[in-house]
Amino acid sequence: MLFDSLEFAVFLPIVFAVYWSLSNKSLRFQNAFLIAASYVFYGWWDWRFLALIIFSSGVDYLVAKGLSKTIDSKKRRTLLWTSISINIGLLGVFKYFDFFSKSFAEAFTLLGKPLDPLLLNIVLPVGISFYTFQTLSYSIDVYRRKLEPSNDLISFFAYVSFFPQLVAGPIERATNLLPQFYIRRAFIYGKVVDGMRQILWGLFKKVVIADNCAHIVDDVFNNVSILNGSTLVLGAFFFTIQIYCDFSGYSDIAIGTARLFGFDLKPNFRFPFFSRDIAEFWRRWHISLTTWFRDYLYIPLGGSQGGVWLTARNVFIIFLISALWHGANWTFILWGCLNAFYLFPLILAKKNRTNLNNVASMRFLPSLKEALQMGVTFMLVAFAFIIFRAETISEAMAYINGVFSRSVVGDIQIYERRAFIPLIAVLFLVEWFGRERLHALEGLFKYHQCLRWVIYLVLILIIISFRGERQEFIYFQF
């Protein structure tokens, strides 16, 4: 079920009404209802894959229970590796088997020994990369004794399957979200209203900006050979805007929806286009994933404690694995390596932790230096996203060759769907003024009620007016 679909527009109010009508019942009953609603939400796409969520939830629940019953280090390691093997094994079968099988066969073909790859050709379950990481982090935290194992099966299954963030995150840690299922939630009007504001802004980003950018991006990337360099540059710009608005729009809707039910999810994006260097960008982009890799891989590898070159090595490993998390394709691997390369000069100069505060904090405008830094960072990100968007390495190289051709000074060859483009400026302006808050529209509570309603109605009218052909959320494929 898609957040921007008619089905969800019917589903959400019904679940909301029933959920809060059960607030005077037992907490377990209310949590059980959330499980049922979440399974309906996920099963709307393909009910057969519900078995994977139930299986993954059950494995990690039992592993954690086993960890709580033994102090024997060998048994504990065995239980942990059981969880890791099963969760990563699920990803391996559904997401990576065909990729590595093809790559293996191609390697033999290059050596003069043609080999037919063994392919499973199975559908990738939506959200599998997200909920397997979520359950896996629970087992690791219990193993590390940072979290007590859950004794409430219903609360744990509700935590794993919670529908707002089930299929595309944020990847919630059990330390943050699971305890919220143990306590009775109170209906707080202000919290519900703020959740609706964030949902509205998420829909604006997804429906108005991302979906309209998608049509231009598809036209550009599908016609690289006949378009000039200036149009290709603009195509890269639009894809960078598209993927941000698509994914952060989903996160805004997810976090806002969770707030309607009394839950607080961690922010997943903190206005990354206002970053002054690439390190700051990655601290602000897909935060739940980058912090997951930091805590469960980067720090165990040694983090930044072993000197500059060891730090660089660890960063390269993290970006390589992050690239593979995004998909089984050599373009993702090259994209990850390029981002690691971007970071190396900052690491060598020990400046990768320089920009930790918000840009132009407590100021209306950035300085000229900050504006230039943000511009350069955006261009580096947009260049890397060319590789991310391309289907193959050869397509990416063809696109890049076009960008650096003489035709880069030619006329832009985009003639359709231009009406929405000024709204990109609205996007940047609203997010700039809201950059010190949890989400762009959070500060609206300070305005007079009449002005707030004017803003709401304008956004709703824009969403209705510029809604075109619906595009699936990009991160569903991961």
Summarize the structure.
The protein is mainly α. It contains 17 helices and no strands.
Q: Helical amount among residues, as a percent range?
A: 55-70%
- Unreliable residue stretches: none
Helices, by number, come to 17
Largest sheet: none
- N- to C-terminal separation? 16 Å
Order of helices and strands: HHHHHHHHHHHHHHHHH
If you average the pLDDT, what whole number results?
A: 89
Taken from the alpha-carbon principal axes, the silhouette is globular
Class by alpha and beta content: mainly alpha
Q: How much of the sequence is in beta strands?
A: under 5%
Number of strands: 0
Q: How many domains?
A: 2
Explain the overall architecture.
By secondary structure, this protein is mainly alpha-helical. The chain has two domains: 171 residues, no CATH class; 210 residues, no CATH class. Helices cover 64% and strands 0% of the residues. α3 packs parallel to α5 and α8 runs antiparallel to α9. It is globular and about 65 Å long. It starts with 5 loop residues before the first helix and ends in a 12-residue tail after the last helix. The model has no long low-confidence stretch (mean pLDDT 89).
